[in-house]
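Quick check before the chapter quiz. The format below is the same one you will see on the exam, so make sure you can read both the input and the output lines.
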Amino acid sequence: MYPYLHIHIFSFEKDITTYGVVALVGFLFFIIPALIYTIKAKKDFYDRFVFLAFLLAIGAACAFVLYTLTNIGYWIKVIPIILKDVSKWKEYMNFGIVYYGGFIGIIIAMMVYSKMFNEDVRTWAWQTIVSIPGFHAIGRVGCALSGCCYGKIVDEGGIYNAVIDKYCLPIQLYEAIGEFIIFLIILAYILIKKNSKAYYIPLGIYCSLYSILRFVDEFWRGDRIRGVWGPFSTSQYISMLILPFGIYCLVCPTEKNFLNKWYMGRKEQKKSNTEAISD
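Here is the expected output.
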């Protein structure tokens, strides 16, 4: 693992986290395809920028909230200590994110954005979903380099993790490979069905395949910080809910999908209702 990169340019010299660099690459992977779609569709850059910024802000907030909830036991113990001595907050503060929280936050953020700005975000949602598995795959490489989200401890066949001074299964890289394959599948579908009105098929593909991938690879995770309740982890329980949602998006017609009335915006809803009446 390589948790830090040493940067030395002229008089500037600093160690920066590898995860930070990889996260930046992942962010660019997420944002660049959206900008390319913006140019091709001749959409307003400002609207698309606000849309993406809104998704990222809500997604990041939800990722942190879910992380906090999965570690509620820790916070119950720590908060009284911090309240007694505020100067200790830096010592006990523990920040982190849970991916599923961010993903669910993005889905909800699309709903909220459509209602707030009266915007049809169905095509935008289509274009956003394709970037998510690629973004996450790159992020998992960052996890492997920094030593977090590590796999079970093994005697051989693993990679050295300096954080716990053990050899672990490179489960982060296994998930990254799986995510990249999902990205290619969704990308192929979008390129083949580029004029399709089945807006929620890419979402259905992603939720169905990733929920299975995540449920399985959680059995080989070695870290406990993600929350384990009974026989399963927090992410496995969420995967059990995400899988039927993904199947629902795959089989349910677009016009009957409950997301449709949220994502299409009020103007498009009125237009659709008018066309239905005229028919």
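If your answer matched, good. Strands lie at 4-9, 12-17, 159-161, 166-168, 228-229, 232-233.
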